[in-house]
Amino acid sequence: xxxxxxxxxxxxxxxxxxxxxxxxxxxxxxxxxxxxxxxxxxxxxxxxxxxxxxxxxxxxxxxxxxxxxxxxxxxxxxxxxxxxxxxxxxxxxxxxxxxxxxxxxxxxxxxxxxxxxxxxxxxxxxxxxxxxxxxxxxxxxxxxxxxxxxxxxxxxxxxxxxxxxxxxxxxxxxxxxxxxxxxxxxxxxxxxxxxxxxxxxxxxxxxxxxxxxxxxxxxxxxxxxxxxxxxxxxxxxxxxxxxxxxxx
Length: 248
Ligand code: UDP
Ligand code: MG
What we know:
Largest sheet: 7 strands, mixed
Radius of gyration: 19 Å
Number of domains: 1
Order of helices and strands: EHEHEHEHEHEHHEH
Bound molecules: uridine-5'-diphosphate, magnesium ion
CATH superfamily: Spore Coat Polysaccharide Biosynthesis Protein SpsA, Chain A
CATH architecture: Alpha-Beta Complex
Structural class: alpha/beta
Shape: globular
Strand content: 15-25%
Number of helices: 8
Number of strands: 7
CATH class: Alpha Beta
CATH topology: Spore Coat Polysaccharide Biosynthesis Protein SpsA, Chain A
């Protein structure tokens, strides 16, 4: 048998923007969990123009661990752009997304993997979210409005911890802010989505990159775009093709 050295079952894609103190513990935790999973994997970090020591730490980690790959943006381009670059670079059949700030618990990965055989996408749901109360409330409102206006039922679309079959991500075109709508966008392409409860942890190091204003206002505008796309989706079934020119 010829073994393909670049073959990976699983790609973990992680956007990083000024997360220097989170990276080492995140890498060790991921390595431990993925070693136990026992399938070929890679971790693709996308450094979204960090101006702290994140890049240095990632480069150093990659020099020791061939499973670690690093993509560096020229300047900060946003979390969706970082996901997009990671998806394009990923070689795995299954792509798992998560944050770099240790808030997503890598120990949930085996549970996501268990469901991915039955579903095309598995979304984490932070049922006991560990964030400041203002963020929890605003996110609850945002999810409610989002689900109502886009006729969706994703409880916690803002949770980055998700697993996708590779094909799902090849069909969607991403725009800035659209990472929050990935489950809806892939469902529109006919893929199946499920949700699992995942552990969430408080941010110990560094600061959040979002505030109520930049998240709520922009996400609402994005929601209207997604609602429009969903409503205007082409929806037809071909009953018959009559092609006189055909040879068969
Ligand atoms: N992030 C990024 N580019 C940005 C903003 C955020 O790559 O412009 C990354 C960030 O480093 C983290 C993830 O996206 O890994 C989620 O960001 P954050 O933790 O600030 O969001 P929150 O958990 O507060 O929703
Ligand atoms: Mg966070």
